[in-house]
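Notes to self, Major facilitator superfamily domain-containing protein 8-like:
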Amino acid sequence: MQLKRKKLLTKISIGLFFFLAGVEYAVILPTMWMYSHERYGAEPWFYGVIFAAFSFSSLILSPFFGIWVDFTEKTKSTILFANLFEIGGNILYFVAWSKYWIFAGRLIAGVGAGAGSAIFAQIARTTTEEERTGVYSIAMGLRQFGLLVGPAFNIFLKETNFSIGPFKVDHYTSPGLFMAALWLIQEVIMIFMYYDLPTINEENDYNEEEEKKPLLSNESIQSNETKAIMNGTTPPVSGKVNAHDSLKDLTGSNSTSRKRRTSSLSENIALAKNLISEAVVVILASQFIMFFNETSFEALYTPLSNYYLGWRELEISISFCLIALEAILTFIIVKKLSTKLSDRWLMVIGIAFEASALILYLIMLTDIKPYEPKILPTIVIGTILIVFGLPFFSVANISLLSKITDKRTQGLYQGIQRSVTGVATILGPLWGGSLGHRMVIILSVMAGLEALLGVLMFLSFRRLRSPSKKTKDPLPSQYSEISTS
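result:
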């Protein structure tokens, strides 16, 4: 199969992975509160636990998936393995007979989401720095497209009412069965359409594999001996080896072994230093704060709209659809601006919009009662600000981390970043869901964290840039060739 076709099929497979991640979120979340609360009596705090379970398993497994991909350089097998957990978790969500089984289903499904770190690492290895932000924007935009399409599935899933053996299929359980079927289809597509693409090298004009080859291989030695015979000369005899030569070989072998151990130790020390460097720490801390605040609001959104506005599944699904549409448009804007603005300025734009939303909420939502006229416009405007700002920050944050870290350890760093995001998406829902309707406390903590993020960005702004490049003309990525062909 031609390499260009393999690239195209791989690109489609990656896009489908992120698309289904968005669909799952939009299909499961609108009914998860009613499913756990109305059918099995789950308290608001336990709903927060269920909400966070998916992220918990993802954060634990993401670094392991990343390290495995760095070690094997085989992304395909990792994704295929992870998809099995998505299938199993959603089946368990479908057959759940208590709130604890709903929790277990989301916990298992979250393992599959950990494969995202492997895909982000592959993107980092197969794109140039100039276009990487745009490629990440496309991948994350496809997730938002899944969020846009997901509510449409809820419209017909809402009408389901039949049984499969002892298991009832209704508007609460059908999302789990539906997503299990979609992830099974994705598994089959990955088997036949996904390929592990070769890594590009931006620092040299030659392939990295060529550098690893010995200067004198067996083939070259045999070729030299053959030429010598053809020319009538006598090749050197290699069969007789004296003791002095053997001692030299043994000494050289030990020296090489020591050099390899020293090199490995130096690489580990450099990796540790890079991990605790100021830029990396700020990137990870800012990722935590932004996603803590964002998921706190997400956990609040469904109960808040249900309690204060009286919204049910249909209204909530429509609102998710509109939110996803705005996010897609924002990702398109980010892709366009990524060639004109640096990653750190894109992060500043995202932080500014979220801070504006929190200020608005603090002013308008700290003392409200159900069905007050100001609630709907406040939530609408605040949600627009948050959804517009988050893509600017999240895409630039992931892209910048990939640019300031070594390509050989992209899986590890992307796994660590997704784990930090996972911690935030666990603590955020627990915080947002545990205090019920005490909006003053919830919003004050979120605003305080946002202020801390602003201080971190201000103090470290100069360091948040990719190192200067050593090449004159970067090589094209594995993805750009598809769009230009």
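- Strands lie at 162-164, 167-169.
- The radius of gyration is 27 Å.
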